[in-house]
Amino acid sequence: MNLFAQLGGTPSAGGAWSGPSPVVGGNYDPATMTAGVYTYTVTGVAPCANASAAVTVAETSSPDAGSNGSVTVCGDGTATDLFTQLGGTPDAGGTWSGPSAIVGGSYDPATMNPGVYTYTLSATAPCVSASATVTVTENAATNAGTDGSITVCDIGAAVNLFAQLGGTPSSGGAWSGPSPVVGGNYDPATMTAGVYTYTVTGVAPCANASATVTVAETSSPDAGSNGSVTVCGDGVATNLFTELGGTPDAGGTWSGPSAIVGGSYDPATMNPGVYTYTLSATAPCVGASATVTVTENATNERRQRMDRSRSATSVQR
Question: Which of 27, 130, 180, 264 lies deepest, with the highest CB count within 10 Å?
Answer without folding.
Answer: 130
